[in-house]
Amino acid sequence: xxxxxxxxxxxxxxxxxxxxxxxxxxxxxxxxxxxxxxxxxxxxxxxxxxxxxxxxxxxxxxxxxxxxxxxxxxxxxxxxxxxxxxxxxxxxxxxxxxxxxxxxxxxxxxxxxxxxxxxxxxxxxxxxxxxxxxxxxxxxxxxxxxxxxxxxxxxxxxxxxxxxxxxxxxxxxxxxxxxxxxxxxxxxxxxxxxxxxxxxxxxxxxxxxxxxxxxxxxxxxxxxxxxxxxxxxxxxxxxxxxxxxxxxxxxxxx
Length: 254
Ligand code: 13P
Known about the structure:
TIM Barrel, eight-stranded parallel β-barrel, alpha/beta, 12 helices, about 15% strand, binds 1,3-dihydroxyacetonephosphate
């Protein structure tokens, strides 16, 4: 049985005081958690403080995005080595908001994953279909393309450093969650796709999180599915109680 991984994507939310307060509470309350991996993904400008607060705790800290080059004339961008420098161990790549609002392509995401792994950042790679793609029965085609283009050229050693997050775009921030069966079905497809490209062991060991309106009420049902190994949580991760309730649901399903 894999350890579940519950990650809080704070997106572009919170003030520095709120972010510090949330991190302090998580530090106090999750010190003893060993059965579930927990991570938080604050805005860039809060990372250094949050890394400091959570240093020595069991809570990982990561960024929500990074640029694919290590340094240079890329005004406004942040590199993987910079994230390492302030204490991050993780990064999210290919979130649907990056894809749709900031026009990130599969090939750019592939380069970012390679850049992240090459500087030792564990990566959460997001995939997921839009509502109209699901309506047109194109979920597997879209997610299949995101996987094959996003993972192009990666070795099975590199794949082992990844977590995949299945986040159907229509379920993000809408309160409209995929049913546990719908999510489990796509997770099975994702694992089979990995199996067809890499060894069975790699496919079995990779963690696949579900994301999209996960909350303390639906977490038990979602995390109880055999192919769901954790959650990437947006809104509900901004409140310490609801986030830790999701962590507890993950512990129950472990
Ligand atoms: P919500 O949990 O707010 O739907 O956001 C999900 C998400 O995008 C996490 O990355």
